[in-house]
Amino acid sequence: MSTQNLSEGGGFFSPDLPISPASTVTTSPLDITLPSPRSHPLRPGSAKETMFIQYVDRGISEVTRRYAKKFSEGFGGGDERDHTTGAPSTTISAGPTPRGYESIGDVCTDLEKLVDVIWVSGTPFLQVQYLLSVALLLTSYLPSFPALPRPTLRLLRKLDTVFASLLRGHDADTREALGGFARNTGRISITDMVRLKSLVERARVVVVDVMGREEVSEEWGHEKDDDSSDAQRGGNKVMEGQEEGDGRWDMEVARVYDRTIVELGGLLRNSGADGL
Span 186-210, mean pLDDT? Predict the structure, then answer.
């Protein structure tokens, strides 16, 4: 994949979504990386902003369609439903009908790609709204699948990092300033902070419930490369995950959105809205 900087001219991104060198790395059993965001936010009404909005809207719609197909395929196909009204969807597909999701790992893969693109935009208002949507989808879909700790907790860690960074106005790991916060124009509104607080509190409850089920995927993760390297070391990833999983994954579950919660607590308390 190309490492072209997405903040350069010639379009917001190309079809294969080139990502610039990673700017955020954490040391954890669930290492994450974030692409470098634009140095300046997208100009309102510009062609690049329109392209970005269309791309992310299309990506979110594709995720919701594939989730809906998970259930319609179980009944021999059927029509797709509008999740708001419950009526048959009138959306005309622009391409082949996608297969329904078979695991939460597939959901996480698609949502993580969207998180990266949203982060690259460097535009706080759009980032907050779209990231809230992505986080809500993940929380809503988790109970519908057997638990898959590695991809789920890794995506949650990435969401935690980007939310904490947006709340601070600088990269939560590297402390580099975020371009969209120049001149104090990108601060998150109290309304959005309250929405975020409600969402992360709900997510923590859902994650504890899902990870505590007896129905846990035997794979524990979906990264074939990791499986190969484990095999070369003579290890057994499934057994290793089951033996040390209780302790390791319990620790990661306890950390879900912990940085975001800390940042929200201070900001809402200082604003007098901590009781909301």
Answer: 93
The C-alpha atoms of residue 76 and residue 73 are separated, in whole angstroms, by 5
* Distance (Å, whole) CA 241 – CA 249: 9
Q: List C-alpha distances in Å: 121 to 77, 149, 212.
A: 37, 28, 36
> Which two three-digit tokens encode residue 215?
């129905």
pTM score, whole prediction = 0.75
Residue that wins the pLDDT comparison between 260 and 9: 260
**Using CA atoms, how far apart are residues 231 and 210, in angstroms rounded to an integer?**
28
Task: Determine the longest span between alpha carbons in the chain, in angstroms.
Answer: 56
At 249-259, the pLDDT tens digits run 888 999 999 99
Name residue, tokens 């936010």. Answer: 41
Task: Indicate the residue type of 188.
Answer: I
Alpha carbon distance 118, 116 (integer Å): 5
User: Is the pLDDT higher at 79 or at 266?
Assistant: 266
DSSP helix/strand/coil, 2: coil
Q: What single-letter DSSP state applies at residue 34? A: E
> How many other CB atoms sit within 10 Å of the CB of residue 183?
5
CB atoms under 10 Å from CB of 242, counted, come to 13
- Residue with the bigger pLDDT between 135 and 12: it is 135
Per-residue pLDDT tens over the stretch 201-245? 999 999 999 998 866 655 545 444 444 444 344 434 433 334 344
Distances (CA, A) of 25 to 119, 228, 229, 258: 14, 23, 21, 17
Q: How far apart are CA 63 and CA 58, in angstroms?
A: 9
From first CA to last CA, the distance across the chain in angstroms is 45
CB 24 within 8 A of CB 34: yes
